[in-house]
Amino acid sequence: xxxxxxxxxxxxxxxxxxxxxxxxxxxxxxxxxxxxxxxxxxxxxxxxxxxxxxxxxxxxxxxxxxxxxxxxxxxxxxxxxxxxxxxxxxxxxxxxxxxxxxxxxxxxxxxxxxxxxxxxxxxxxxxxxxxxxxxxxxxxxxxxxxxxxxxxxxxxxxxxxxxxxxxxxxxxxxxxxxxxxxxxxxxxxxxxxxxxxxxxxxxxxxxxxxxxxxxxxxxxxxxxxxxxxxxxxxxxxxxxxxxxxxxxxxxxxxxxxxxxxxxxxxxxxxxxxxxxxxxxxxxxxxxxxxxxxxxxxxxxxxxxxxxxxxxxxxxxxxxxxxxxxxxxxxxxxxxxxxxxxxxxxxxxxxxxxxxxxxxxxxxxxxxxxxxxxxxxxxxxxxxxxxxxxxxxxxxxxxxxxxxxxxxxxxxxxxxxxxxxxxxxxxxxxxxxxxxxxxxxxxxxxxxxxxxxxxxxxxxxxxxxxxxxxxxxxxxxxxxxxxxxx
Length: 485
Prior knowledge:
Layout: H1 49-60, H2 63-67, H3 69-73, H4 84-112, H5 116-124, H6 130-159, H7 165-181, H8 183-210, H9 224-236, H10 242-246, H11 252-280, H12 288-293, H13 298-308, H14 310-327, H15 333-348, H16 356-380, H17 400-413, H18 420-433, H19 443-457, H20 459-484
Helix pairs in contact: 1-8, 1-11, 4-9, 4-11, 4-16, 6-7, 6-13, 6-14, 6-15, 7-14, 7-15, 8-11, 8-13, 9-16, 14-15, 16-17, 16-19, 17-19
């Protein structure tokens, strides 16, 4: 049991350790090593802030961000479209809040060397951690399929439809699996070669589109809060995978800084450019990529962004693999990656990208309150000092309560997606309790605050339950010792 409990303050990020694997000079994986194949092997700590900053900056630029910017500009419909200034402010505010959550979620991974879903053993217990592991698997498969859809359609926007959609999906799927087999090498590759190309492409396309004189007038601030929720949800969708990469960070500071600086800047730039591009095509998301391709040298630079999109599908596939390793810790991650890559490619062949906004809202509703519970327990209530990530970590059923309450608060406050049965359910609940959300109310912040406050409120009861359990375990240990004598 003791060997499975990870001290959150060991490792090269926080000081010396008796474990030789925590010393980068003694670690044979230090310079050019790869991620371990199973959870029984120690992770190499090879990623600095530049590696992680470049990686997260690449994740912050997405072709889905360009077309999905419509959900930022008009989160509750075209009648309440935001002004350009309101959209940019919502982007900045939402990115700072959401990315801070992602950065903080990365810190325990950097401290313990554990992947994200394994860390949740400390919050919920080993068996209960299987629930978020399965939820994360579903959402990451969905994200991966969306990304392959985007890559295939982005390629067709450049080259036409002579090459069928399914061919592009399979090509992108093969590249994704290859990147996932060598995850740390892929991150170093991104930093050295891809990031510079993405920066040049973004600058060129920004200048080209602005010179075409986009119409950025009109609108209001009335849907500002739902727009901030959208951006927060966009950021927070990465919370469940942050520790999967941060476990290879040289320090917790490098992990947080790489996420916060790299992703915040890139997402603001991506969504701002998406707003400009949408204005050139009368806010038609189906035509937004044509604004990029039709710019001078647009096909070349848009092609760089299409190729770069494979890092999104890579991150999703690798995180899915890590989630499943929480259930199957001794299975070779390469085997899981190949199977997941095939599944994601299959889903992409029938993916409905029109469900993207509803899917994103569901992710936010699940993972914003879960992060709030984790953050309060780990950082404020001293949980980090006793974080048990062992395979027999005891269940903490009480921690489900603030998570579920936060999920409910999200949907009480959120702009409801156009999924009829789900919308009717929550409209009925609002009517039954006599509640109607006001325009300034934020679903993300409301869900976070409720989950955080409830976690604080139940802390004394959680301590009593833990003390009782530890006393019972000690008593059983003494009885076993007496029998052995």
